[in-house]
Amino acid sequence: MSILVHEKSRILVQGITGDFGARHARLSIDYGSQVVAGVTPGKGGQTFEHNGVKVPIFNTVADAAKQTGATVSAIFVPPPFAADAILECVEADLDLAVAITEGIPVRDMVRAKRAMQGKRTRLIGPNCPGLVTPGRGDKSHGGCRIGIAPGYIHKRGKVGVVSRSGTLTYEAVWQLTCKGHGQSTCVGIGGDPVNGTSHLDVIKLFNEDPETEAIIMIGEIGGNAEVEAARWIKANCKKPVAGFIAGATAPAGRRMGHAGAVIGGAEDTAEAKIKIFRECGISVAETPSDMADALLRVWRG
Amino acid sequence: MNIHEYQAKQLFEKFGVAVPKGVAVSSVGEFDAAIAQLNTAGGIMVKSQIHAGGRGKGTFTDGFKGGVKFSPTKEKAIANAQAMLGNTLVTAQTGEAGRKVQTIYFTEAANLGKRPDGRDDEYYLAILLDRATSKPVIVASTEGGMEIEHVAHANPEKIFKVHVDPAVGLQAFQARQIAFSLGFTGELFKQCVTLVTKLYQFYWEKDCAMVEVNPLLVTAEGKLLALDAKVSFDDNALFRHPDVVALRDLNEEDPKEIEASKFGLSYIALDGNIACLVNGAGLAMSTMDIIQHFGGSPANFLDVGGGATKDQVTAAFKIILGDANVKGIMVNIFGGIMDCNVIATGIVEAVKETGLKLPLVVRLEGNNVEAGKATLAASGLTIVSGDTMADAAQKIVKLVNNK
Question: Which ipTM did the prediction report?
């Protein structure tokens, strides 16, 4: 298995007619993912075509889901409209909404997250690279790629990867793949202070997933999400975990590209988080070049 | 985005939050007219306007002490303001370079109320996002006028928190909870409920990242006033607040950061001597970390974003080279989807255009990486190639430290 999505997951793309959404819809189709619908209000009835694949476009998420059986949405809608796009997925009862959009106002996300309470739909992101469950073909072709991650760097296997950052996730995945170790699912949860799915949520899913044998958790300065996950791992997780925290050199109070990465309290510096990782039995990567090796020190593969 | 105290207080007034009367000016010629608008019977506060805290305890580079001064007379106020305006104020938060004071805020000095133990009757009030719950939280304390971090550490029982449900907004009982927790009764209780309610309305409607009032003061006459005001806004929401954008003071921002933002680059200057150019915020932060890990010192954070173009790379090099401390550059690109050869071509052109003489180590990985490396090798330039992040960081640290 994998977590959250698998090779047959049926994907709809909100914002498929925009440059950004269209580009990544094409890459997902090339990767062999099941892109079955697009949503752009006002362009319902048109078709998005790529390499012989015809993707019908709908006016609403509900229509798209009903007509095509899509259960997962990739959201590429511009920031002012993105929270609305997320809530449209909730209304349509999708399993998963993956918000790639960067720059959504915090207030919009605070409201959207509150409105999602008790609902069926899970949100990944926003401001995230999305998620990949690698396929079993050449260069992991045939997998489920939702978002903007490069597909070919993956390899199907047993390691679960969870991270706030896109490029750091790719770094970890590539290190694993180069050393011959594949991934079950790689999840980018996003760099914003308010997000739908936390490190801990993903760790719990990996812990339950029979295919996942080991986990890499990549965090950053700011907030206490990694600490929360680490403490849960110590008490509950049966699988070996390696961790890395970015931002040891970041000055306090400055926002480093990710809105979430601002140092505020006592437990949200890199030093404090790394200390807690160690106390919780997580194998710590000293540098970002050491992420796969840190895992292989506690897991034979 | 940050704003000045006087701007924050003007916004407070619009929302009905009580503040001492004040006038802000930016030239000596306006001092007289500004003070003439105030009731100076109780004295005048002269307040340097910079985007940094610790002003009262700060020192100017010419030795003048105090960026916030009580002045008993108009003459004294003008003398203090003359000493501050155009002078550079160094506080615990400005760094050694300090900030040039370009605006002076004159306010009526409040007649401080006293507690039974003789202390000034000062409180703390702030509204911000609680990341753990994804809800706004109102933080209040009876211990105002000092650093809240200190209170949180020494007297955590004196800090009160109320979380606001974004579905319904701040409820009246919650505003009452704050007023009760601060120990107010009678007329002051009512004033506190009103002030908390209006302040929350301001926080929410204007998409603030943080609103902080420290101290919140009770005057000898029994009035509750926001004596200081620190406000920052959510950058992502500025598109819907042109009135807030108009308050931006570019003098308070690093010119290199402003230049970078024009090219869609995210740049933050640091104190070190090894510049880095990276795609992705997380990778950029950890590139700084790995430089330090191997004994170097990062000069900046620079994220060129996921789809960097040749123009962006050239602009990034120019911004990096504008920092005289820079003695070497490390480029770290994981080109997942973008073409490494496009980046390599951009680097070669940027090096030629800027006439770069400093050591340059480039680590390229990802899509079309072989062509990218070939482009760098064929350029005839002395560009050192790093195979991994660790390899590249070790190489640039060695090159810079051996110089």
Answer: 0.91
